[in-house]
Amino acid sequence: MNRMNDPSTATRESDIPPPVPYRGLVYLGCAIFALAVNGVLGKEMAWDTLSYHFYAGFSALHDRLGQDYFAGGFQSYLNPLAYVPFYVLAASGLPALLVASLLAVVHSAILALSFELGLLVSPSEVPRARLLTGLSAVALTAANPILLQEIGSSFADITTAELVLAGWLLLGRAIHRPRTSWIVAAGLLLGAASGLKLTNAVHALATFAMFAALPLPSAQRWRTAALYGLALGAGFLAVAAPWAWRMENAFGNPLFPLFNNWFHSPEFPTAPLRHYRFIPSTFVEGLLRPFTTIDPAPMVQTELMSPDPRYAAFVLLLAAWPVLSWIRRRRGDARQATARSIAARRVTVAMSLTLIVDWTLWLYASGNGRYFLAGACLAGVALVGLSFEVFRGQAKLRNYVFAFALGVQLVQLGLGTQYRWDSVAWGGPWFDVRVPEPLRTTPYLYLTIGGESKSYIAPFLPAASGLVNFSSAYALGPQGANGRHVGALIRRYAPRVRVLITGERIYPDDARRQPSVTRVDRYLERFGLRVNPADCATITVEGLPPPAMDFTVASAHAGPTTIRPIEDHTSLATCAVVSDPGDHAADRTEERLANEALDRLEDACPALFQPPRPVTEHIGTEWSRIYLNTDLNAWVNHGHLRAHQEMVEGGELYLGRQADWLDGSIRLECGRRHGRYFARVVPAATK
């Protein structure tokens, strides 16, 4: 049967309240709001957009596995389907404002879905009262700073979160009126969201908590949850399987590069990949996270300042609910429940349970607020539902509290929030890449240097061109599977191989400007290559934000050298590379000693330096390693070891003398507190 009605608990058809008025106007208002936010914030040109979002959409429509290798970093191999709409629109040549406006309209659906969820927690049968409840949910959803940051952008968090919310909406309606078709559709939607972006799997798993509130006998709830699980798996496979099959054939890991500790592809670390940037350091920090998100400081739940007091309000209301309910029962202050109010309470319970489980799983998995957009929207709706229960019969007090909470959040948005990762003024297409002759007609293999992969240039090069981002957060070395793959590409394209780096040009050493020939040669020497200064060109990119200091060109600890932009455009310098017959025996000896010291450092403090044994890069006078899990960059320079935590001011750690590490006369006390790493060198004699 399609219907799973239980006449004693489910809302009857006759109990369905009249339609909410002005629904179409609410949807229109959500779209207008999103368009206004997008227009004010400007064009988003974040690191993610430039490094892999645009490239991901391109690679989904063009088979690049045979000619590119880690072109957009390790994110190149995440399921790219979610980025196809952005790529198609941005590559069309349409004005960027129009492209972003179309995206903003699509993104406004998350507000409309929050409105519909808000209607489900309203205990009133009066259409206008339910309308106000839905609008309250929209207001709390729209006050999310991370949501505002992503409207009109290339980020897929917001579009895939809409699938999650749509699934929750169907399940919320099933709590009012159980239907098998809604349960199945919800599973398919949440499965598809997880297939498009694996971080949504946290929401999909947390959704099982919602079935505790279904108005069905216990055995039937279990069967319904199992049905949801089957639909969830089917939705995931339908979206993820085609790309997973390609990853399995290419790398031996269908989820490459994720979960490589299970699949053991030789082309990525087999240690667990877990980004600790926003994960609480201790259990107590985790318990306090709903309250620390109030702080208008960066690096709390995102890299930008994104204060959000709604989670603290949820915790307080949730704690007050049973206490006040007990007091009312003691006083004999019982209300006559209607079928509508019972269903609304069930939905509120379901959403609160789901939010608690979702928050816990998310905080353990990543703690990154961008991956919690769906949960953040649910928090706004749950707050509205809880307010009806906590302030039952006290409408004025409820309204005052809601207005105060919303006012506090609006003040936070005005004073303590950063919008857009990197914003530039509107004008022209999203990407305006100008490639000189003969690079427009002759396919080359480009070896790119930089934490920002520059893979966005791929659609503007000849179709047969290849890209390898070999020097980045995940550096590629000459040994192992990575080295064999890069070496095979170099041999296939030779002599049409070039290096690409941010800068007006690759300067001769006597110019004393960066990037210099010697600095770039030090990257290339691992593959037996060097720059050919006689064959260089410049690719010009219009409309990018001024290039930030790049750790692979001039790291945060390497002095004041910066890449100088020319007026309003960015230059990418590219030179041909040739074989390097030079004698690097001294460098090899220095590298061996640096590797030995860094290996011992990793063994002494595995909690900080993970995954272990990344490729060591020769940067200037340094031998440097990047650790993906902990955002740490450790290096050996002039006989001393140091480390730096990315994006944390004053995060440099002194780790002792290289000679002491080599002779074993040193140990390290280290750990992590409040999102910051600490390390203290202890001489062996003090053991």
Kindly state the number of beta strands.
16
N- to C-terminal distance = 72 Å
* Chain-averaged pLDDT: 89
Summing up helix and strand content along with how strands pair, one would put the structural category as: alpha+beta
Number of domains: 3
Question: Could you describe the 3D structure shown?
Answer:
The chain is of the alpha+beta class. It folds into 3 domains: 18-415, no CATH class; 432-582, no CATH class; 586-686, no CATH class. Helices cover 46% and strands 14% of the residues. The protein is built from 21 helices and 16 strands. The protein has helices at 23-41, 47-61, 84-90, 96-107, 109-120, 127-142, 145-150, 157-176, 180-196, 201-206, 218-251, 260-263, 283-292, 310-331, 339-365, 373-390, 395-415, 480-493, 517-524, 585-604, 658-663; strands spanning 43-44, 71-74, 423-424, 432-434, 445-449, 466-471, 497-502, 529-542, 569-579, 617-619, 622-627, 632-637, 640-645, 652-657, 666-673, 676-683. The strands form 4 sheets. The chain has a 6-stranded mixed β-sheet with strand order 4-8-9-7-5-6. A 5-stranded antiparallel β-sheet has the order 10-11-12-13-14. It has a two-stranded antiparallel sheet with strand order 1-3. It is globular, with a radius of gyration of 27 Å. The termini are far apart.
Topology:
Elements: H1 23-41, E1 43-44, H2 47-61, E2 71-74, H3 84-90, H4 96-107, H5 109-120, H6 127-142, H7 145-150, H8 157-176, H9 180-196, H10 201-206, H11 218-251, H12 260-263, H13 283-292, H14 310-331, H15 339-365, H16 373-390, H17 395-415, E3 423-424, E4 432-434, E5 445-449, E6 466-471, H18 480-493, E7 497-502, H19 517-524, E8 529-542, E9 569-579, H20 585-604, E10 617-619, E11 622-627, E12 632-637, E13 640-645, E14 652-657, H21 658-663, E15 666-673, E16 676-683
Parallel strand pairs: 5-6, 5-7
Antiparallel strand pairs: 1-3, 4-8, 7-9, 8-9, 10-11, 11-12, 12-13, 13-14, 15-16
